[in-house]
Amino acid sequence: MIRVLLADDENLIRAALAALLGLESDLEVVTEAPDGRAAVTAALAHRPDVAVVDLQMPALDGLEVTAELARVLPACKVVILTGHGRPPHLQRALAAGAKGFLPKGAPGGTLADVIRRVHAGGRYVDPALAADALTAPECPLTPRELDVLRLAEYDTPVAEVARRTHLSAGTVRNHLSAAVSKIGVANRAEAFRTARDNGWL
Fold first, then answer.
1. Across all residues in the chain, what is the average pLDDT?
2. Rounded distance between C-alpha atoms, residue 69 and residue 80, angstroms
3. What's the CA gap between 5 and 133, in Å, rounded?
4. Got the DSSP string for 77-106?
5. Which of 17, 108, 99, 27 is nearest to 66 (CA)?
């Protein structure tokens, strides 16, 4: 039997995945977790062969869970599920140690097949997402510009962004202006949306 951990903050999705995997004669869901921190704790307690984790969860996200499991339980292979797969997410997931990356919209039997594949030492990346990753635009922003843009979401005042980043208001304005210019949009709201949609944030 392949022992599986399921981690997703949406109870209905987690229950549906558990039921789906329960139909497989060689897979056993040994534990479930509603957030990333609980996923790591459950993995250490139950020692699953494969952890199936949602990309976006509270406490720790899927990438952080992947990196932590690679450190504390390297025998456990990680498959990341996502409803919002973007090429940079895929790249970061693989860099963190994930062995599988699968959209939640994949056909029903695909997850079981991916679990078997990564358990056997293979990898799986959704073909459409892999193709997108090959043609995705590179992020033109520096890490600091990304930090400032991330904090500037929802028209957060420049003074508040400056306080949080320990920068002067003028430096924050310069970073936001550079981000708008490099992305080629009209304002910081459009810059944020474009960066988010491309998975740069």
1. 90
2. 13
3. 28
4. EEEEEESS--HHHHHHHHHHT-SEEEETTS
5. 99
CA dist 17 and 81 (Å) reads: 11
Tokens of 48: 């699953």
Q: Are 37 and 64 in contact (CB under 8 A)?
A: no
- Picking from 139, 154, 112, the residue whose alpha carbon sits closest to that of residue 197 is 139
Supply the DSSP symbol for 192.
Answer: H
CA angle 168-169-175, nearest 5°? 90
Residues 4, 110, 96, CA angle at the centre, nearest 5°? 60
pLDDT score recorded for residue 28:
96
Is residue 150 exposed (0-12), middle (13-18) or buried (19+ Cβ within 10 Å)? middle
3-state secondary structure of 132: helix
- Count Cα atoms within 13 angstroms, Cβ side, for 181: 8
For residue 168, the one-letter residue type is S
Q: At what angle do helices 62-72 and 36-46 cross, to 10 degrees?
A: 30
Alpha carbon separation from 85 to 2, 3, 5 (Å, rounded): 26, 26, 21
Walk across the sheet containing 2-7 and list its strands. Answer: 27-33, 2-7, 50-54, 77-82, 100-103, 124-125
Tens-place pLDDT, residues 19-38: 999 999 999 999 999 999 99
Query: Band of the pLDDT at 85, cuts 50, 70, 90?
Result: low
